[in-house]
Design goal:
This protein has ten helices and four strands. The protein has a two-stranded antiparallel sheet with strand order 1-2. Strands 3-4 form a two-stranded antiparallel ribbon. α6 packs across α8. It is globular, with a radius of gyration of 22 Å. The C terminus is likely disordered. It binds zinc ion (4 copies).
């Protein structure tokens, strides 16, 4: 019912396979809303007559949106810092060695202030994020560089899949995200786990679909088989882009 209202198509990329679709908070206030209304978004949306603060996105686009939100947050902090003192001449100690703003409790990490030299929080944040991207790029390239199911090759949509279902063990051992990628590079990409490059859609879609990517099978455990069959027939007749 929720998708009947918000649409059976990703607002950003037009993905039609419902195995990849989810409800997204337009204004990125998901955490706040969850606190006030509980965790079942579909029930909540129905109760409030499907308010326009939600939209249909695929997992890939929702993931990219979150990355963009974090990047935006960095820019906002930077604009605030325009009012702070900048280095102009003389000894550079106590100023960010990239953007030249004064290092204070607000603008820099404590260890940097103690040192007197280094990067402010913004420059450090951007540096960390670029480095994390480079490490992730290295890992993904070594493992094939594209989603092994659908061929997606944009880095911000890629993740590591565990076809043996031991992802939790791997994360317990090596951490997740950047920490896992860093450890993989350190271990020269040798791992006792079987790893697979997947896009977020194929990875999370399979997780929600009893381990089978919705590209392969449209049978899903959390929706009505009868209803799905009808919709699937409709789609197959109307569109040639379905796999
Ligand atoms: Zn999408
Ligand atoms: Zn700086
Ligand atoms: Zn994929
Ligand atoms: Zn797939």
């Amino acid at each position: 019912m929720a998708f009947n209202h918000y649409g059976w198509e990703c607002e950003r990329c037009g993905e039609l396979n419902e195995g990849f679709l989810t409800l997204d908070h337009v204004n990125d206030d998901g955490a706040e809303l969850r606190r006030s209304f509980g965790s079942n978004l579909y029930t909540w949306a129905k109760k409030f007559a499907y308010p326009p603060i939600l939209q249909t996105l695929c997992y890939n686009c929702q993931w990219v949106k979150e990355i963009q939100r974090r990047a935006r947050k960095r820019v906002v902090t930077e604009t605030l810092q325009e009012t702070t003192v900048r280095w102009k001449e003389g000894p550079a100690k106590g100023f960010c060695c990239r953007c030249k703003i004064k290092l204070t409790d607000q603008t820099a990490r404590p260890s940097i202030i103690r040192n007197g030299y280094g990067l402010c929080r913004c420059c450090q944040g951007r540096e960390d994020s670029n480095r994390a991207d480079r490490i992730k790029g290295k890992v993904m390239a070594a493992l094939g560089g594209r989603c092994q199911c659908c061929g997606e090759n944009r880095l911000d949509r890629l993740t590591i899949g565990h076809p043996e279902g031991d992802g939790n063990f791997h994360r317990q051992e090596a951490g997740s995200g950047t920490r896992m990628y860093r450890k993989l590079v350190k271990d020269r990409l040798v791992s006792r786990f079987t790893l697979l490059v997947q896009c977020v859609n194929c990875n999370y879609g399979a997780y929600r679909n009893s381990g089978v990517c919705p590209h392969v099978s449209l049978v899903m455990t959390h929706s009505s088989q009868y209803y799905r069959t009808l919709r699937t027939l409709e789609r197959t007749e109307g569109s040639s882009t379905l796999r």
